[in-house]
Amino acid sequence: MKDIESAAQTYIITADCPSRTGTVDVVTRFLFEQQCYINEIHSFVDTTENRFFIRVEFRLDSDAIFNQDDFTEQFEQRASQFEMKWQLAPRPYKSKVVIMVSKHDHCLNDLLYRYRTGDLNIEIPAIISNHPDLEELAKWHGIPYYHLPITKETKPEQEAEVYKIIEESKSDLVVLARYMQVLSSDMSKKLSGRAINIHHSLLPGFKGAKPYYQAYDRGIKLVGATAHYVSDDLDEGPIITQSVDTVDHSYYPEDLAAKGRHIECLTLSRAVRYHIENRIFLHGNKTVVFGK
Amino acid sequence: MKDIESAAQTYIITADCPSRTGTVDVVTRFLFEQQCYINEIHSFVDTTENRFFIRVEFRLDSDAIFNQDDFTEQFEQRASQFEMKWQLAPRPYKSKVVIMVSKHDHCLNDLLYRYRTGDLNIEIPAIISNHPDLEELAKWHGIPYYHLPITKETKPEQEAEVYKIIEESKSDLVVLARYMQVLSSDMSKKLSGRAINIHHSLLPGFKGAKPYYQAYDRGIKLVGATAHYVSDDLDEGPIITQSVDTVDHSYYPEDLAAKGRHIECLTLSRAVRYHIENRIFLHGNKTVVFGK
Amino acid sequence: MKDIESAAQTYIITADCPSRTGTVDVVTRFLFEQQCYINEIHSFVDTTENRFFIRVEFRLDSDAIFNQDDFTEQFEQRASQFEMKWQLAPRPYKSKVVIMVSKHDHCLNDLLYRYRTGDLNIEIPAIISNHPDLEELAKWHGIPYYHLPITKETKPEQEAEVYKIIEESKSDLVVLARYMQVLSSDMSKKLSGRAINIHHSLLPGFKGAKPYYQAYDRGIKLVGATAHYVSDDLDEGPIITQSVDTVDHSYYPEDLAAKGRHIECLTLSRAVRYHIENRIFLHGNKTVVFGK
Amino acid sequence: MKDIESAAQTYIITADCPSRTGTVDVVTRFLFEQQCYINEIHSFVDTTENRFFIRVEFRLDSDAIFNQDDFTEQFEQRASQFEMKWQLAPRPYKSKVVIMVSKHDHCLNDLLYRYRTGDLNIEIPAIISNHPDLEELAKWHGIPYYHLPITKETKPEQEAEVYKIIEESKSDLVVLARYMQVLSSDMSKKLSGRAINIHHSLLPGFKGAKPYYQAYDRGIKLVGATAHYVSDDLDEGPIITQSVDTVDHSYYPEDLAAKGRHIECLTLSRAVRYHIENRIFLHGNKTVVFGK
């Protein structure tokens, strides 16, 4: 977090490709040739799938002029020889995040707090809900609130409207902050890799509806939450991060919910941070996360 | 742990019954009349099932003479009016625990350490295994080791032998310390409420075989263990306690297993302690645990 | 949390006294005579100091009429024979909590969220700050905000004003939610046992100013927070609860602060909950906490 | 942990130097030129101290012949231009670890378990103690046990003997596994950076003698342990890793000790693992740890 000013000259490059000799060098040599200073570098090789992942945070020498197009064109020539999928992002970069909610406001409240204090470096072009309840909270933060009710019949139209808001605001990420609705298969696919959901159980335990009630019935001794990318297959998307806290027999479902709230907030906001800081790679139905 | 000497005069009474006014008083008044001093008292009412649970640790005035038979006869007269199931146990009471293992020795090693240092106040009349591998470890601790191989065909005979050892040693508890064999329905029933298993996942996630492999495939970010009473329904018995630790994408199944070992040890030994200190009540398919 | 309606008829009795036979019975027998139903009972004996502590949550039979004055008069006759200090409180009881802040708003924001959603069953008659910054947040929640600047010279006057607000609002508790000022010895004494402070370190490590900077300099690998009662001796008051999270070498003081924020919130709100639910006993420079 | 066979061809290079452009490239380019495949790379820049740290795990192409002397000579030419301190180590490399103990055996027992199962890839040329108590345990593991009593007067001689054992066995690391003796200033200096101590508190809280008693007196709600390098300044050496567990008022010093045992074991073994896997850099009075 040091040197906020010079951070304007900081970038993150992420890449993944089949694993072979030279995959690190192709990145680090190029950055050296461009006189970039590497702040931090992480790599990982999945030896089962034979795939390589790398994340490099670098900054430019003080008065260098950085031409992103030139960088892209030149690096692509080398990266393509490694069949590399890669991405370059300035940091700090203010990601645009659309938040979807239902009536529960704890995750929204937490995200808004982190938004207004700058703890999460995001813009929020829209808060979308199928209920009107949380409009006041959105308004106090000066964020447009879209009340888009949903029924079985109107789901396609509602989702089309939602998608339009996401697209028109050029949003980078959609966060389902206890939205309580299952996205259609079509919508899930369109948002693949850029929609994060918080599920209030430690997946794969207690998939589906009312996980705190399921957990109560099973007599669990730890209550947890899972942040994951939305996929076509309910509660089966790639897991980003998980947290737990201890409980005992005296926790009724309402008590689990109360205790679980801060865990949900913490888990979801961590996942959002990882995403906007380009720390996550999708890797089949898993994630590679260079966390902090 | 204070006053180890006077602890010889310490007892634990546990009871549960339908919930109604007077359920605490019937216990506490009787203890007062017997001039017992209450060290610690915990109670819980399950308002859904309308059932009351209580655990009282008490000691006798210094030179009192305690007649357990008289106590039992007299208290039963009152307890029966509340349809109370109850139990009286001296503390410290050296429980007899039979340990069953396969080839993995980490849980056994941990239990034996706690046994030989007195951390767990137990006797171990037998270690039973379907493999010969851990005999040396048993021997060094001076504990009889029974190598009872098992095949599909010989399972009934093997279990009969196991049961004989448990019964003849008058054991209070059977601990499946990574035994890796599913007990038959009949055996599960015979050991109901006195056999604890450690499962190396956070149940209900990853039931059945090879949970670390299942967890790896699902891309989990927390690895856990669950200690539970054995029941007829595999990995569905009442949960006693659970623990977790964080992992990331770089953990292959072998790494999950390595990281999980201490979690398994910790979780299993805690469950054993709760059991032998009469801290656990079976309550349908759940447990009420007055833990410490 | 069950039976919210009947909860109107729920009470908590807490008591402590020198340890001797009959200390539980004197409470439980009286409650039985009054036809009270005990929901939950916890006791503890400090065998070093020879002192007994008990907390009982009880409810009245459905249509009983409860006369608190009669209860008090009658129970006091018995309690006094045990030199018992005791307290009776209805539950839910909406505690009045004055919050004091400086410029950091994360703990305030968290407490206000829990206040407005009913997660903490409190009224907040006043938010007091030596800075004007957080007025907007207070206002949005409809809570009076007192901006009372403080200098070395004006400290006595400022504290007198603060005390007046606390007294006139008949507040039960004062919460220093990152107030960043040391209360005078006189003020500390006047608020003894009813003022909770959050210190952003794991006491007794890093007492005094700028604990995150101290922690950074020492190279710690866990960052923590401590909620404690304010005492005359800075950061030496009785500890109520503590929490931690893991960090590494890459955390500068600002990063520790960022990571520590949710820990501070969680720790402080837990301490407030314990206090208002009468779960805490002051016991010399320690606390006995019957937590949940 | 994959590919144990090919792991014979795996190496770790660690380096640190003043921070400037090219510090990553000088390592990664050289490795590329040597046709080394990078499994994992971590770097960190301390922007306050302007110092760069890197750890790279690499393996050789299947049938390459690796000449460590050539590698060293050639890389040194480049590294010296960056004033780089660096180290090359084969992996797996069986570190030689001398363990020093007193009478408490829990940490020793844990380390021996990890040693005999291969969980820690170490040799133990000697266990040294100022008491005879743990000889039996050492013997069962086939490890020479040196009983070297110590008094104020004989300390220099005793330490000379200890040092001789360390040197003659060419040990890489000394582990004070609850040795309970303070090393002399001279001895601390001679073992600087290669002696790890476990202190049973969360430093800097409760330095010095009897931390569990100190913690009890202070009424803490978390019990912890700290593994650190031994330094001349008691309990002030660079911290490697720390862990905690929750406790409450009912924990007397003996109970804290009992609960703390597994935390000490876990914390110490983790520190040892980090050290022998070349994951730790000494950095003034702190450490940089590329943990896993």
From TrEMBL, chains A, B, C, D:
<dbReference type="GO" id="GO:0008864">
    <property type="term" value="F:formyltetrahydrofolate deformylase activity"/>
</dbReference>
<feature type="active site">
    <location>
        <position position="235"/>
    </location>
</feature>
<dbReference type="InterPro" id="IPR002376">
    <property type="entry name" value="Formyl_transf_N"/>
</dbReference>
<protein>
    <recommendedName>
        <fullName>Formyltetrahydrofolate deformylase</fullName>
        <ecNumber>3.5.1.10</ecNumber>
    </recommendedName>
</protein>
<dbReference type="Pfam" id="PF00551">
    <property type="entry name" value="Formyl_trans_N"/>
</dbReference>
<comment type="function">
    <text>Catalyzes the hydrolysis of 10-formyltetrahydrofolate (formyl-FH4) to formate and tetrahydrofolate (FH4).</text>
</comment>
<comment type="similarity">
    <text>Belongs to the PurU family.</text>
</comment>
<keyword id="KW-0658">Purine biosynthesis</keyword>
<dbReference type="InterPro" id="IPR045865">
    <property type="entry name" value="ACT-like_dom_sf"/>
</dbReference>
<keyword id="KW-0378">Hydrolase</keyword>
<dbReference type="InterPro" id="IPR041729">
    <property type="entry name" value="Formyl-FH4-Hydrolase_C"/>
</dbReference>
<dbReference type="InterPro" id="IPR044074">
    <property type="entry name" value="PurU_ACT"/>
</dbReference>
<feature type="domain" description="Formyl transferase N-terminal">
    <location>
        <begin position="96"/>
        <end position="271"/>
    </location>
</feature>
<dbReference type="InterPro" id="IPR004810">
    <property type="entry name" value="PurU"/>
</dbReference>
<dbReference type="InterPro" id="IPR036477">
    <property type="entry name" value="Formyl_transf_N_sf"/>
</dbReference>
<keyword id="KW-0554">One-carbon metabolism</keyword>
<comment type="pathway">
    <text>Purine metabolism; IMP biosynthesis via de novo pathway; formate from 10-formyl-5,6,7,8-tetrahydrofolate: step 1/1.</text>
</comment>
